[in-house]
Predict the structure.
Amino acid sequence: MAEERELRYEPAAIEPKWQAKWAANPAMYSVEAASGPQATEKPKYYVLEMLPYPSGQLHIGHVRNYSIGDALARYMWMQGYNVLHPMGWDAFGLPAENAALKNNTPPREWTLQNIAAMKRQMQRLGFAYDWANEITTCLPDYYRWNQWFFLRMYERGLAYRKQSKVNWCSLCATVLANEQVIDGRCWRHEDNIVEQRNLEQWFYRITEYAQELLDGLDKLPGWPEKVRTMQRNWIGRSEGTEVDFDVEDFPGEKIRVFTTRVDTIFGATSVQLAPEHPLVPVLTADDADVEYRISAMIDEQKVARETDNLGALAKEGVFTGKYAINPYCGERVPIWVANYVLMEYGTGAIMSVPGHDDRDFEFAKKYGLKIRQVIRPVSDTGETFTLPFNSEDGVLQNSGNFDGLTCEQAKCALQIEAKQGGFGEAKVTFRLRDWGVSRQRYWGTPIPMVNCPAHGLVPVPDEQLPVLLPEQIAITQEGGSPLGKVPEFLNTTCPKCDGPATRETDTMDTFVDSSWYFYRYTDAKNSSAPFDSAVAKYWFPIDQYIGGVEHAILHLIYSRFFTKVMRDLGMITNDEPATRLFTQGMVIKDGAKMSKSKGNVVSPDDMVARYGADATRMYALFAAPPDRDLDWQEDGVAGVSRFLARVYRLVRRFAPVALTAKGKADVAPTGVSLALLRKLHQTIAKITLDFAGRWHFNTSIAAIMELVNELTAAEAALGSGEVSAAVVAESLRSLVLLIAPFAPYLAAELWEELGEEGDVLRTPWPASDAALAKEDEIEIPVQVNGKLRSIVRVAADADKGALEAAALADEKVLEWLGGKTPVKVIIVPAKLVNLVVK
């Protein structure tokens, strides 16, 4: 009993001890010099988890994400890499402002308190972050550079202001980017319908890079295909033709349509405009009834848009009474206003070809419009077929001089004629829209522009940055940005004429903060530039980026855009921010994703208090493959804690034996020693392979458990001398190194117990001996007529004859054969034996 008490695993005593030691050595996780005469010769490895919003408390979803990155960082340190593993805070944003309204606490105070609390949690969990490079995006030393980037983009025409229809969330009281509207609702308020408003807004011209953003996805094989597909769809490239239809009786007025099927233009029997198309009021000014009907259509479309129900709208149209002229054939076609045509897509106008488009066909049938076939199958058998005929594998007919051309041939010829005739051209369009970065809220980066009565918009000079956000102001959700009500902020002088001027009162979208933060990590204290280009060149691209798939569009596409802008500014040489991306699965509790809004959050503090940080982290990695959802079960944490207690007792019990060892055994191991070493080196090989790319940390931990089972089963031999002290030492030492990425506190304690000098983190990862890891025997499934009937053990190098003999000698197999002789024996070496009998 006394020995059991002495060997009791007590994480509440062990973990604070090592936390204090690590805190006293802040350089422990620091990087070595990237440039200059003291530059390290080690290879670099930049591993990064997406930075959190400081909401005040971590939950288990955070712990899982950070445990993945932390295990990888520790492994790479042990592999001899110069590792950058930083952490910071995405600290601007609406929750802080809303909390200020609710709790009467200034956003800065609320945010910094939360950061301090979450940092304490991370340190207690033992995450190996380089806190020397910590960043906080709401502090002037960071957001100054948001403003600097804005000015560089403004100079290059990539930042501009215009009147625009925007997404407005009434609960956030601010504009949302298109990417922040999910199913017609705010990304932060899932039950709140987003409205449409017209406002003067600032934009980043991300569309300037649309094609490169699309092409670059093919150069990212280390990103999940689902993420690349989501980005391709969001960018939405379409190749087609823009064509101008003159408007009859309205000289100079034209309707420009974009179509990917210009080969069908002779089948256009109407032109349809979005209800908000600028020509609609011009064409309907003489008909009050039509104006009224279109106004009702706009209201209906608005409701459908705000409830994300556009697709369910019954297709409705209003004939304007006016006609357009098909430029290819001079035919008059009626101009309609249709509720399913959207102003924000394409040109806000379409040509309707009911013979070759399902939606146009439905509209034409409803309103009695002409339906004309202008494409026939390539192999025309004379048989009739049902319209619409949608295939692009066809030949033109009823198309004037273009009859007989294939669809592809006709597209080229029609584009040439449009270009020569001055009424159209080939065109590539994108679904991607420019990034609206204006927000009418307080807690964000001030936009560094002033409005001068004499000179209009004037950028703030670099030497006047940062434009500081005032710290103590009254925050309301009404009447635009709260900054407009702060005279000491609003009123300034024009940098050009020193005359009175007013500051821009919008603040930047907080996704600006997270679009380049990982570059700042490489040089976080730089006060003269966002970062040193030479240092960034050493570290970039990021070797492994880790975060949730929910950021596949919002964050990742913006960060790719910023990277390309910085490259064009000459600041970096890489085209993409990260070579590899890993998107972890969600943590599920009570059947739903763990989140505060659902009230199913599990605090890591509770788990750490009961079971320790190592057990909490290790269970998060063990319970499911990292890319799959994890169903959180507290019993599982308790089970991992019991396993770590077994490891603790095993190592402490036999540490005295290991301490007597003098190097490796000088004789070939046999018996129990050989079996233990074989299992040990198989485990090393498996975990090394997992870290190399598969990331099956759940099976890595399971392999460690199997190794511990084998060591525990051999305890009598370990203590009796049957197993040499050298083998005991190698087994225990390697076991501690193998658990170090997953349970760093316990590893540090046991490393000390084994009398090892230096930090386990800087100790080389154990190497697997291929000869020792090789199996002497393997298990082979034996089938009879394709059904598994037994498993036999054979030598690992057994040939086909030996495999057949072993199968036919097995009692279970003989019982299934029932005296019959196989008519055929199918053998897959080292895999299976299948006996075929009649």
About this structure: The chain has a mean pLDDT of 90. The first helix runs from residue 2 to 6. DSSP finds 27 helices and 34 strands in the chain. The longest strand covers residues 159-169.
